[in-house]
Design a protein that fits this description.
single chain, 867 residues, alpha+beta, Alkaline Phosphatase, subunit A, Methylamine Dehydrogenase, Chain H, eight-stranded mixed sheet, four-stranded antiparallel sheet, 19 helices, 22% helix
Length: 867
């Protein structure tokens, strides 16, 4: 009978044993071979008078990382230290965990002899109750992460028992299940959160496979929703944890609640997919991470996968398995509360281990051959989908886990061994390994933040090089980071390993070659100090000078705003309008629409001057430079473009992985900020087109962006209902503003430098005081969502909001009470701008019209101070 499973989804978490994660699930299903609390280890296996530690259910946030190297695992399994010539025919006793942990750090023995209460892992508790758990799944090799992950996809580690630099540089050459799936006429996809560790396999670096890699945040849920998941899916998590972006792979010291959230996110996306009734979802762990497990590791009848023997000093023959790890299987074809024990075959000694993945994939998809002797021997689990019809009562959502870690991740923490390997992989992908001695020592001294930043830029460079190789007509088997890709065909970035190495280049020469991002930060820091001094000087003069009547000036500005009336209404395009902007001198107006075309209009007559054509999808925003008549446009085609008023294209800014939302010029005009549905905003050099800042921090799409009048700060808002303030001099988020309950779409700095306005889908506008770091006003501004917000640009005396309720509203910046309602649009108002002198407002709408609102107050003698 043909299998009902058409899509297999694999998620491999990090470094936890079965007893540590799932042992106490025995309390909810007695059939599970778990723990009772009677299991124990002596602190010294050679001293029977030493303290005996019993297993507890007190696991929580864990730091530091227990030992799990080949030597450490040997001692944990056999209760004896490994030494050269150590016996290989010992019987596993599983009594060395406490002893080995205490050597790593005093007190760590209590940590490795602990497990989680079921309620601490609500996502797993629900999945195990609703679907299946395997209580006899072992890691493939008694050692650390990377060799075990290789088994998941290829049923061999190609002789590796630890990190092998040479194999990493060249890429592990063995055939993988990905290639077998493709040869069998099926599809595969790897959804990564950066970086994809599957690139340790050489063959997956080939040009023909690059399109099989998809960024998880951008594509996984979309592919689920559209029913476009491939037949074999691997989901890779975040292996690095920094502030606001925690690691979710469960590797200590990452909070397992973040891992729970990730599993929940994957499950719920799969559950809502039209492919749900064809899916088998497997969650497992690569190795035990040094945590106790009571089940002896299998050591009899286990075949060496390919005849290779591990390197000295271990000379491991790959004839015994590692420690038992969690494995959860999910499908509507699985009966509730199923427990898989030892497999029935194909051999009497067969076990479930990581090679069971390719073995089962082969069976379900009818592939021609096994990869190695190991997956030929391994147990398969296709029989877990035992129902004749799919269930209709599977939970749509899973419980929310509770955070265990009380502090932010330590960004200065040293890299774990696996993170070091990922950084070394990055060095291979972008070519650093060709220019320097392989940087082992430097990687060891890297912080988590440095490693994460480096890996991200390295993978981006690799993808860019692959795109270039395709444009150059390279064959699908070409690998850009191989020896055949010589330096002449690849532009290699400056090596991070020079960070701590000597150089033949004189120091003075090296110091004058400053990378553009650093140059930009230095320039912004310098100029912002000058601008701040001018702004504060003006504010003090207005406050203290007896000739200044600030109240009178504000009153005049607000009276002026009360007189705004519609001066002009013009059809702007054939499709809804999405953006508008005045030039700095007020002589031009720019608009854009869903046709993808931008238009330049002369003012005040609103006559067409030129069209900006080049985007391949709808235009989402348009803005004039504050220093010249250059115009920037944003588009759903994932690019921003720079134009002049004649319609000539000056530059294109590429890099975002999803459609753009809004954009904004830095006050200097030298830099352009763009926001995107790829959850990032970026800063570009307008002249060179170089990406200077790549900013992550929002958990959903980034929508709005504005720059502080001094140029030192940026503010972003997004669909995560959050606004963030960023220091451009450091590239860090320095303030998170929480208060909106729905997506935030509009954001604007006041010219006074300390007020920030936000508005969004909760129909409210909030005014924030950046000095006090809190919300001052919450204005129930509109009857529908607020699409954009703008302060009057000269003094900030009034604020304008526009909404899908078809109105624009003017608010006093003194007390944020309404001053004027601008009615006239017949559909959603999407964008607004205020001319530099505050005398005119422009709005655009889905009704395709441009409406110009002008003040009827002609008392020019009371114009605002513009010094």
């Amino acid at each position: 009978m043909a299998s009902p499973i058409k899509t297999i989804v694999i998620l491999v978490q990090e470094n936890r044993s079965f007893d540590h994660m799932l042992g106490y699930m025995k309390s909810i299903n007695p059939e599970i071979d778990g723990v009772t609390g009677k299991e124990s280890n002596l602190l010294s296996t050679t001293n029977h008078e030493s303290q005996r530690l019993f297993h507890t259910n007190k696991a929580g946030f864990i730091q530091p990382d227990p030992g799990h190297s080949f030597e450490a695992t040997y001692e944990q399994i056999f209760g004896k230290e490994w030494s050269e010539g150590a016996a290989s025919d010992l019987v596993p006793t599983m009594d060395g965990f406490a002893q080995q942990a205490e050597k790593v750090q005093p007190g760590l023995s209590e940590v490795v002899m602990s497990g989680f209460e079921p309620d601490s892992l609500p996502v797993y508790k629900e999945l195990i109750s609703e679907f299946a758990v395997c209580d006899r799944w072992f890691s493939s090799i008694p050692t650390l992460t990377q060799p075990n992950r290789l088994y998941v996809h290829s049923a061999t580690s190609y002789g590796a028992t630890t990190n092998d630099n040479k194999s990493m540089i060249e890429g592990y050459p063995q055939k993988t299940i990905f290639e077998s799936v493709e040869e069998g006429g099926h599809s595969f996809g790897i959804y990564y959160q950066l970086p994809p560790s599957t690139l340790f396999f050489r063959n997956l670096r080939k040009l023909k496979y690059i399109d099989n890699f998809h960024q998880f945040d951008l594509h996984f849920k979309r592919h689920c929703k559209e029913g476009k998941l491939p037949n074999y899916v691997v989901v890779e998590q975040r292996y690095f944890g920094i502030k606001n972006i925690p690691g979710n792979d469960d590797h200590p010291s990452h909070d397992v609640s973040d891992g729970q959230k990730f599993v929940k996110e994957v499950y719920e996306a799969l559950r809502s997919s039209p492919q749900w009734n064809e899916i088998l979802f497997v969650v497992l762990y690569d190795e035990h991470g040094g945590f106790y497990d009571h089940v002896p590791t299998p050591h009899v009848g286990i075949p060496n996968p390919d005849g290779l023997v591990g390197p000295p000093p271990y000379n491991f023959n790959f004839d015994r398995l590692g420690v038992r790890v969690p494995a959860i299987l999910v499908s509507p074809w699985i009966e509730r509360g199923t427990v898989l024990h030892k497999p029935a075959g194909p051999y009497p000694t067969s076990e479930f281990e990581h090679s069971s993945i390719p073995a089962t994939v082969k069976k379900i998809f009818g592939l021609k051959s096994h990869l190695t002797k190991r997956d030929e021997w391994a147990g398969t689990f296709e029989g877990v989908a035992s129902r004749t019809t799919p269930r209709t009562d599977c939970p749509v959502t899973l419980p929310d886990p509770k955070k265990m870690r009380e502090t932010e991740p330590d960004e200065n923490e040293k890299l774990s061994e696996f993170q070091q390997e990922l950084v070394q992989l990055g060095a291979v992908l972008n070519g650093d390994n060709k220019k320097d001695t392989f940087p082992d020592k430097l990687v060891e001294n890297m912080t988590v933040t440095e490693g994460a930043t480096y890996v991200e830029s390295a993978f981006k460079k690799f993808c860019d090089d692959c795109d270039q190789a395709k444009r150059d007509g390279k064959d699908g088997s070409y690998i850009v980071c191989s020896e055949e890709a010589t330096p002449s065909t690849r532009k290699l970035p400056k090596s991070f390993s020079q960070k701590g190495s000597s150089s033949s280049t004189p120091l003075s020469t090296r110091l004058t070659t400053v990378p553009p991002p650093l140059q930009a930060r230095y320039w912004i820091a310098k100029e912002s100090v000058l601008k701040a001094a001018v702004r504060l000087g003006r504010a003090r003069r207005k406050r203290d000078d007896p000739d200044e009547d600030l109240d009178a000036e504000i009153n005049w500005a607000l009276e002026n705003a009360k007189s705004f009336d519609m001066d002009c209404s013009e059809i702007g395009d054939d499709r809804p309008l999405s953006g508008c902007s005045f030039s700095a001198d007020g002589k031009f107006l720019a608009t854009c629409s869903l046709t993808g075309v931008g238009k330049i209009w002369s003012m005040p007559e609103v006559k067409i001057v030129s069209s900006l054509k080049g985007h391949t999808e709808r235009a989402t925003d348009i803005t004039f430079s504050p220093t010249n008549n250059h115009i920037a446009t944003a588009s759903a085609d994932r690019t921003a473009r720079l134009w002049n008023t004649e319609g000539t294209l000056l530059n294109t800014y590429k890099g975002h992985l999803d459609r753009l939302a809004r954009l904004a010029f830095h006050p200097s005009g030298k830099y352009l900020g763009t926001t995107s549905f790829d959850k990032t905003w970026r800063l570009w050099d307008t002249e060179t087109g170089e990406e200077l800042l790549y900013q992550e921090g929002h958990s959903r799409s980034v929508y709005g962006l504005d720059f502080h009048p001094d140029g030192s700060l940026a503010a972003s808002c997004g669909l995560d209902a959050l606004a963030r303030v960023w220091d451009l001099r450091s590239g860090r988020s320095i303030l998170a503003l929480e208060g909106h309950v729905k997506p935030v779409l509009g954001i604007s700095f006041s010219p006074n430098g300390y007020h920030l306005a936000t508005g969004g889908e909760d129909n409210t506008c909030r005014i924030w005081d950046l000095r006090k770091k809190r919300s001052l006003y919450t204005i129930p501004a509109h009857a529908n969502l607020i699409s954009q917000i703008k302060f009057e640009p000269q003094e900030g005396y009034f604020l304008v909001t526009v909404s899908y309720d078809m109105t624009a509203k003017v608010w006093s910046a003194r007390d944020f009470k309404p001053v004027k309602v601008l009615s006239g649009h017949e559909s959603k108002v999407t964008s607004v701008d205020v001319v530099a002198d505050g005398q005119s407002i422009v709005t655009v709408s889905h009704d395709r019209t441009i409406k110009l609102w002008s003040s009827k107050n002609v008392d020019k003698e009371k114009d605002m101070d513009v010094d």
